[in-house]
Amino acid sequence: MLEVSGITQIFGGVTALDSVSFAISAGDITGVIGPNGAGKTTLFNIITGIYRQTAGTVHLEGKNVTGLPPEKLARLAMVRTFQNIELFGGMTVLENVMVGMHTKSSAGLLACAFKMPWSISEERRIREGAMKWLEFTGIVDLADHVAGSLPFGKGRLLEIARALAVEPRIILMDEPAAGLNSQETVGLAQLIKQIRDTGITVVLVEHDMELVMDICDRIIVLNLGTKLAEGTPREIQESSAVIAAYLGDDD
Amino acid sequence: MEKLIRSGSNTMKRDLLLFIGFSVLIMVAPQLFAGGYLMNVLVFVGINTMLAIALNLLLGYAGQISLGHAGFFGLGAYISGILTTTFSLNPWLAMPIAALAVGCLAGVIGFPILKLKGHYLAMASLGLGIIMYIVFNETVELTGGPSGLSGIPNMKLAGVSFDSDVKNYYLIWGFTLAVMLFSINLANSRVGRALRAVHDSEVAAQVLGVNARLLKVQIFALSAIISSLAGSLYAHTMTFISPASFGFNFSIELLTMVVIGGLGSIYGSFLGAALLTLLPEILRGANDYDIIIYGGLLVLMVMYMPGGLVRGIPDLFKKIFKPKGGADHA
What we know:
CATH topology of the largest domain in chain A: Rossmann fold
Strand order of the largest sheet of chain A: 6-7-8-3-9-10
Structural class of chain B: mainly alpha
Number of strands of chain A: 10
CATH architecture of the largest domain in chain A: 3-Layer(aba) Sandwich
Distance between the termini of chain B: 28 Å
Oligomer: heterodimer
Order of helices and strands of chain B: HHHHHHEEEHHHHEHHHHH
């Protein structure tokens, strides 16, 4: 599904990522973990086309997508969410998700402004599609609220609903549980499993170990910009290298 | 869920009714104000509304500032003026040629300058406006230089020449209402949502598949085209143009109209344009104090109506007509 090879990122003189390679298979929930400063978010920013890496390639479903901008990746069915949720604060919850349907609609500037018949029927289809994703994430009752006024937990759900509206085959989530209370985190775990069950590959950066160990099929551990370990949750929990990285070495 | 989908089409109906009501009001206004000098001012309200909407699409919706929009307005006016005088073209032909030329120019310039953000974009667009102003002044054999270009013909339609204030009022407002409807439709569409999305979080919009860079250039070009149309109409209404009307001051005045009226609201642009066009006329009686009152009012409005007139006036009504006890809970 997603293949990353030899990703290196140098900011000034600092090596944030040093030749990181891994492959993610379709239908898995994969967790990317590691101590602060390990390079997890940088890695996400490179994969999703927000940063341009110093070296290395990214392949999506066998296709070389290295250096493609995010809007092109969205059309190749890859989407992401952000650590500090990036909502369109001035728009309603429903409108936020409707923007998610951008690649699934095509009416241009003039067709919209002159209200061509096809743009009107498309608008209806966008609205119905967006409602479907609000139902999926359980926030349909908030459809008319202004996104900027939502509590953080609901905002997180909205960001996920909006990303799903792109109809991705792979979704990357940057710390989806950050800022959620324990009850909301349980709901999130449920939702992520549901997303996977619809056939979408999920990759998440996460600090909440309980969540990661609970829902992930595979885990990749980064430390100081290099890949430290990779395996099932059980293998990772038993890896002495990982324990050393998190808790410090005995020596 | 069905209810919410239907509420979408209800909003559409409400928008349409509001627009029809507004249009009727505009069309009967000359009967109420019985001509005279006021008609002339109302013609300017129409032109300024068009310009404010053009800038609002860019600033209020897409979140991109321009301090050089008077330049596009002037460019439309001069291209129309020169084509109909020096080259004796029909105004109805000159107007679309001007709009197309200005749109292409804005598209070409838009690609490099819309890479800039915030203050840098403000500076670049300011420079652009000043360059155009210098061109109007210095290409004397083409534009007539600082002394202006005169003898521009009025527009004619089916034998009627638009040579009086009342006729011009209907001509200008016909165009202005069309631009308003066009912009309202655009704002409530897939493209309008993408614009607002770019405004709120460019990176999130891109991740969802919005080509932010192309969209910004498109809207910049559209904004320039509407400004150019307003310029052509201005030239054919006034029959005389000079660079003084298209300087930096007017770019700032347009920006003030958009902000005072309400960012991201088409009717707000009308309110802002109407207020800033009518206020100097109303204050004419105050002699030398007019500029102080004018400035003071603007400061007060920005302080107490930060959302602009279009949101501030309804709030004010609510405050006045709500019973005292209830107002605190509102």
